[in-house]
Amino acid sequence: MKRLKRYQYEHYAILCRESYPKAFDHTAYGFDSECRRDITDRFGKTIIRILWSERKDAVVVFKGSHSVGDWLTNLVCVPKSLPTKFNAGNVHWGFYFQLTQTSRKSKNPYHAKYQRLSDNHLTEVSQSHDGGHHQGNSVLEQLTACAEELSARGKRLIFTGHSSGGCMAVIAAEIIEQEHPGIIKRIVTFGQPAPGFWSFKKRYRLHERTYRICCDVDIVTFLPGFPFIFWHVGKMIWLHDNRIYQDIPSPVRICRVLVSWLMRPIAYHFMDKYIRRKDYFDQH
């Protein structure tokens, strides 16, 4: 597995943070002005941002839970079998539902519904109807359509997401990778719960390209909270006590954090703590 570089980590982390506010200027992060599409959820709120430039691969940013409805959906911890053709086992129903929900069109000028890439822009494609009633595309269908067009232009996809967005990124990446092998370059998630059951972990194809970043004792990274039922995938990178650890088991993480908390009053007496605060004198 290749090492995740610092500038990559910072870039993806900032994009995940900036995906939450409604206002988002993607050009400030090196993407071309016309190279962006947003996919909305059933309420018309942006759930995925697809960003690219002529010189870079595409970055797909999945937003985490941002409404009461999302949090309630996350609580539905029952197995959902992915379509048989994918042979990818069972995933968390709530996260899969958010990917398969029908998108409602928003006023966002970058909205991706019923659009496909053409050269440097997106153009309208035909809408489907049933008895005169408009039928929308699902979040996953729109994402797949954009992924196919970007791939046709020689671009690979980097998926990143925070919290439940990380789980959606993992599940969507597995589905799209099976349909288009080699299209997924990397998956980087932050504070992500476990996305699926053992059957999903066992069949997941992107372990070597998936980085799951956890910070200290972030409780969400231990959810849904059913040991040996829900499983994480990929490589775990744990940020703790000014160090980086890899693939540390959950019980060890908890023990180390508890020890760190108990030792904190004594640790603050060490000289290295004082040296690290040297910058304070330049600021006052």
Q: Give the strand order of the largest sheet, numbering strands 1, 2, ... along the chain.
A: 1-2-3-10-11-13-15-16
Query: What number of structural domains do the residues give?
Result: 1
Shape: globular
Strand content is: 25-35%
C-alpha-based Rg, rounded: 20 Å
Q: Name the CATH superfamily assignment.
A: Alpha/Beta hydrolase fold, catalytic domain
Instruction: Give the count of helical stretches.
Output: 9
* CATH class wording: Alpha Beta
Unreliable stretches: 114-135
Protein name: Lipase
GO biological process, one term: lipid metabolic process
Domain Fungal lipase-type: 59-225
Organism: Veronia nyctiphanis
What does this structure look like?
The chain has 284 residues and is α/β, with parallel strands linked by helices. The protein has a single domain, classed as Rossmann fold, CATH 3.40.50.1820. 32% of the residues lie in helices and 26% in strands. The strands form five sheets. It has an eight-stranded mixed sheet, with helices on both faces. A two-stranded antiparallel ribbon has the order 4-5. A two-stranded antiparallel sheet has the order 6-7. Strand 6 and strand 7 form a beta hairpin. Helix 3 crosses helix 5. About 8% of the residues have low confidence.
